[in-house]
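Summary for the funding panel

The consortium committed to producing paired sequence-structure records for every protein in the target list. Below we show the first two records in order, beginning with the earlier of the two.
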Amino acid sequence: MPLHMTKIAFRSESPASLRAWLESHADEARLTTRYLPKRVEEMAGGSLYWIHGHMLVGRSPILGFEETGQGRHWIRLEPRLIPVRGKPKRAHQGWRYLEDADAPPDLDVGEADDLNTMPAALLGELSKLGLV
C-alpha cells in the first residue's frame, strides 16, 4: 500500500480553482519543498491529498520527486484533481504523511459528495465542532 501526503490548497478559492490551476500545467504540476520526504520510497504510487476548508477534497497522483539544483526539491504531480469523499482534516503547514488506510475513497464519475456542496466556511465551523 502506498504512502500519501496531505497539503493545504494555499491561495485556492475553491476546489474548482485548484482543479483549474492543476489543469493549466499540461505536462505536470510541481510544488517546491525544502526537504525531501524521509519516506520517499514508500510514496511510489501515492497521491497528494488536497485540504480546502478543513476538508480533504481531492487528490493528485505523485509522479516523483526531483532536485531543483537550488537546495530544494520538486514534488511532481499529475495535472489533475481526482475528487474524493470529503473527510475532515485540520490545517497544517507544509505537508504531512497520510497512510493508505486513512485516505478517503475516490468519488465515482458524476457522484457528488454532500459535504463538497456545503459552503466552505460552514463546513469549516462544523468540522471545528466535531460535527462532520
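The next record, for a separate protein in the list, is shown here:
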Amino acid sequence: MNILFVCMGNICRSPLLEGWARQVLAGAGHPATSGLDSAGTGDWHAGQPPDARAIAAAARHGIDLSEQRARGVVAEDFQRFDLILCADRENLSWLQARGGPAAQERVALALDWCGVIPGGEMPDPYYGTAADFDHACRLARDAAHGLLRRLSRQA
C-alpha cells in the first residue's frame, strides 16, 4: 500500500508522520514501508530538510528524519497513493478540493483514520516550543502504531 502523509509545508508534522510510520512498519516487517512518502499542500519549502526542531524531537525517540526533503503535493499523488493522510482539516479540505471525486475515499485525517483521536487534528508546532514538537512527535508515534494495527487487520 502506498501512503502519503500531508501537512502544510512538509517540514514538521508530515515528516514526523512519515518517519514514525517507517520505523513502526519496518519494525513489524510490514511491506507498506516502501510505499511511504510525505508532501505539503504548499511547496515553499521544496527541497529543504524538515524543520530542525522536528528532526531533534524525532531523534530523541530514535527516528531519523534528516534525509527527508520537502515537496509539494502534485496531481499524480492522487493516483499513485492508495491512502493520503493529513494533519488537519485545512489540509483535508485542500486535498479533497484538488483530488476529485475518485480520491475522496482515500483522503482522511491521520489521527482519525489511525484510530488515535476520532476527528482529531495534529496541532502545528511550527510557531511553538520544543514541547510542542515533542507533542507532535508523540501523536505521530501513536498514529504509526494505529496505522500498523489497521493495516494488519485489512491484510
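Regarding this second record: The two ends are 10 Å apart (CA to CA). The mean pLDDT is 96.
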